[in-house]
Design goal:
heterodimer; A: about 525 residues; Methane Monooxygenase Hydroxylase, Chain G, domain 1; Periplasmic binding protein-like II; MetI-like fold; 7-stranded mixed beta barrel; 5-stranded antiparallel sheet; 12 strands; B: about 300 residues; mainly alpha; 2 domains; two-stranded antiparallel ribbon; 13 helices; about 5% strand
Chain lengths: ~525, ~300
């Protein structure tokens, strides 16, 4: 085979010495390395060490693969593999990891960030509050606090947002103060100014017009809990739930991310109010995928058989018209159906009402909503099955049908005794992947019903037409709560199933390939 | 040819045509209705299939122009449809170009170069590809949220984030292109090799020029895939002006604000070009799907 001979770059091609190409290559690698180093540093500073490590691995990979001659072959596959690893494998693993944490809208940040948030809460001592004025001094500013007939004035200082501590000294006359609108412009920078009064006490901006003694509400204790300075109560750090608890034992938001072990899985599988809808959703997901595949396949093979009939004229035009539902972007067709099925003024109900006097509640009745989903999905999916069937039908030798005709066999008998047995084996992997696709056909559900109608009495909002994927998607992004942890746990369970399906599909593909090799 | 009696054959033909025409009428009904709706005045009007009076209101709005009704009231276009279409095309083109580069180099290596773990990597890719992106959106969101802290170019609400995320969808394309490369006569690379070409040169000057048709098909298929992608785009793109068509189109049909007529015109306007492109490419799609996957 030629491949082995080509595996090493032939020496003839590389002339001795340093070529321009190499300089350009090292230059590009260098620039890329600098850029990625910046990203790594930034991610580390932003408190995302995990992603920093991933980018660092990418950087090392790039430098090694594109820098060293040894890895010449790897250069062809490295970029693609890296993309798959970072944007498919990493997200799958990370989602699984999230399933073991309490990550969500209420537990979004790290413990340090949450502590910072609490420490940033300030209490203003109203008794010390006093008006201030800002005085321009060249490009610098002075702070003036009225006191008695005159007041206290600071030395000139730079007001650019850096923290500054200015000592105040008594002066005898009131200087010309800046107008309010100019002070407003400077309010962010003013927040960083601390004034030290002659008696040693420090005050800072407590409003647009006033300075006062401002102090943190909470003080950090060595064990990580927070002491409320005003009333002496403690917020105790509870690592098991990722929240501070107050004296009454209640959790105080915001919380931070912690590992909660199998808690999410336990909730999903065993806790009342989630398990029941989960089970129902799972059964519906499987039913939905099976029915979609079955009807799509049946309709597709039926149409393909008719189209394949030698006596039929105008095949080309029929074919184009029949695959139109597949050609139109699905998101448009699905939304079109959403409008057509509208209960009150959708065209389908208008027709049904004028013909039969009925007005089905497509979006509020669970059974009807499910029927609608199957109808739309079969409409979307049969052309794919039809196209594939047409290809496989051509591979069946005509002799078989001739022999059958001599025996006097009819069309139905032909189909079930000749066509189906021959077409099914190569179709199995495609049916499996079609099942896997519909099992996670999130787009259809999200655009058509969004899970509606709701299942009554559940803790996490769940819909009668939700499939596992759309349910997970809604739990993480659309409904109040944003419980990423729960969503991660459900996703992990789906991943296991998808993994099984993927393996089955892979196995079926192998079998089909072997069968083809033998045939 | 199978022998049949002429009289029976005639009725069979009639039945087949009747069945197909009836079925197609049923299947195409939604499209005709939508066309009709897009030409009716107002967003809630009902009527016959051929609208009367014909109003260009929705088409004017879909093209991004304000519409002046006969009574003088002016309606502003509700959504920037053409901008969305442009966003979709931009993201789809760049991502597909990237995918093409990644998948054709990889396909070449898998088809012609010997390296350790070649078969294992191919098989793994096939399995990995089945994991649905819709379920990893939390992770994708977190990744780009984190990257956004470093540079807004790769943050949430950036088109580049979406493009980078899309670059991972290469497996099917690798299989398709590899299937094609496998069918190229090995004598070709032998000849190139004798002339002193490196594998890269063989790829660049022998394989690439020979595979322009299949590469065009892969580009088109991947383009369509990206233009119609919904879950990841809906999570990564938030601002109305940043949205792709697939994400934005839904805004027409919220219960509180139901712009059925406007949607119909926008849907046809934006769906038509994509449909045409797909119809032109579909022949190759089938051979890619049924063969690419099983050529081991």
């Amino acid at each position: 085979m030629t491949a082995s001979a080509l595996s090493e770059p032939t020496p003839m091609a590389s002339r001795p010495g340093f070529r321009v190409v190499d300089i350009v290559r090292y230059g590009v690698i260098g620039v890329l390395a600098l850029g990625l180093t910046y990203v790594i540093w930034g991610l580390y500073l932003a408190g995302e060490p995990l992603f920093a490590v991933v980018v660092m691995a990418l950087l090392i990979g790039i430098v090694i693969v594109f820098g060293a001659k040894r890895f010449y072959t790897a250069r062809f596959v490295f970029p693609g593999i890296a993309a798959v690893l970072i944007f498919i494998v990493l997200p799958v693993l990370y989602t699984t990891y999230v399933g073991f944490t309490n990550y969500g809208a209420r537990n979004l940040l790290t413990f340090d960030r949450v502590t910072e948030l609490f420490l940033a809460q300030k209490a203003i001592d109203k008794t010390t509050e006093r008006p201030f004025a800002l005085v321009a001094d060249g490009s610098n500013y002075r702070l003036f606090l009225a006191e008695g007939a005159a007041g206290l004035l600071s030395e000139p200082f730079v007001l650019d947002g850096t923290p500054v501590n200015v000592p105040m000294a008594p002066v005898s006359e009131v200087p010309q103060a800046l107008a309010m609108k100019d002070v407003i412009k400077l309010r962010t920078a003013l927040g960083e100014v601390t004034a030290t009064l002659p008696d040693g006490s420090e005050i800072s901006a407590s409003g647009l017009r006033t300075f006062a003694k401002v102090s943190s509400v909470y003080e950090r204790q060595t064990d990580g809990s927070l002491l409320n300075r005003a009333d002496g109560t403690m917020l105790v750090r509870d690592e098991t739930v990722g929240f501070f608890r107050n004296a009454a034992g209640e959790t105080v938001a915001p919380g931070w991310r912690v590992n909660v072990g199998l808690a999410n899985f336990q909730r999903v599988l065993f806790s009342e109010g989630i398990r029941q809808p989960m089970l129902q959703i799972f059964v519906w997901t499987v039913t939905f995928a099976l029915l979609s595949v079955f009807f799509g396949f049946a309709l597709g093979i039926l149409l393909a058989s008719v189209l394949q009939w030698p006596h039929l004229k105008g095949k080309a035009i029929y074919r184009i018209l029949l695959i139109l539902p597949y050609a139109v972007p699905a998101f448009i067709s699905i939304l079109v159906f959403r409008g057509l099925f509208n209960q009150n003024f959708g065209e389908i109900n208008l027709i049904l009402r004028s013909l039969f006097g009925i007005q089905p509640q497509w979006f509020t009745d669970a059974t009807l909503a499910r029927t609608m989903l199957i109808i739309v999905n079969v409409w979307l999916g049969y052309p794919y099955m039809m196209l594939l069937s047409m290809g496989y039908l051509q591979a069946i030798p005509q002799d078989h049908y001739k022999a059958a005709a001599l025996e006097g066999s009819g069309a139905l008998r032909n189909f079930f005794s000749i066509t189906l047995p021959q077409i099914l084996p190569p179709f199995v992997p495609l049916l499996i992947s079609s099942f896997a696709f519909n099992f996670n056909n999130v787009v259809l559900i999200l655009l058509l019903t969004r899970g509606a109608p709701d299942i009554a009495g559940t803790i996490v909002p769940a819909g009668q037409t939700d499939i596992l994927g759309s349910f997970t998607f809604r739990v993480s992004f659309q409904d109040a709560g944003q419980s990423f942890g729960i969503a991660g746990a459900i996703s992990t369970l789906i991943f296991l199933l998808v993994g099984l399906l993927a393996y089955a599909n892979f196995y079926a593909l192998r079998r089909a390939a072997e069968a083809r090799g033998r045939g | 040819m199978i022998v049949e009696r002429p009289r029976e054959l005639f009725w069979k033909k009639v039945a087949a045509h009747a069945f197909l025409i009836g079925f197609i009428a049923l299947i195409l009904f939604p499209f005709l209705i939508v066309l009709s709706i897009s030409l009716r005045p107002g967003n809630f009007s009902t009527g016959s299939l051929i609208p009367d009076p014909i109003s260009l209101e929705h088409w004017t709005l879909a093209l991004g122009l304000p519409f002046t009704a006969p009574d003088g009231t002016v309606t502003q276009p509700p959504f920037p449809v053409l901008l969305w279409l442009f966003n979709s095309i931009k993201i789809g083109s760049i991502a597909s170009a990237g995918i093409l580069i990644l998948s054709m180099t990889a396909a070449y290596a898998f088809s012609r170069l010997q390296f350790r773990g070649r078969g294992a990597i191919l098989d793994t890719l096939l399995i990995v590809q089945m994991f649905p992106a819709a379920l990893t959106v939390i992770a994708l969101y977190t990744i780009f949220d984190a990257l956004g802290n470093v540079t807004p170019i790769l943050g949430i609400d950036s088109h580049w984030s979406l493009i980078v995320a899309y670059l991972s969808g290469i497996t099917l394309h690798i299989w398709t292109i590899k299937g094609y490369f496998d069918s190229i006569d090995p004598a070709m690379d032998k000849a190139a090799q004798i002339d002193g070409a490196t594998p890269w040169q063989t790829f660049r000057f022998v394989f690439l020029p020979m595979s322009v048709p299949i590469l065009a098909v892969v580009f088109v298929l991947s383009f369509i895939g990206h233009v119609t992608e919904y879950p990841v785009a809906s999570v990564l793109l938030r601002e109305t002006n940043n949205m792709t068509l697939a994400v934005g189109a839904r805004s027409y049909l919220y219960e509180q604000r139901y712009l059925w007529g406007d949607f119909a015109a926008a849907a046809i306007l934006s769906g038509f070009p994509i449909t045409i492109v797909f119809l032109l490419a579909q022949r190759y799609l089938v051979s890619g799907l049924s063969e690419g996957g099983v050529k081991g």
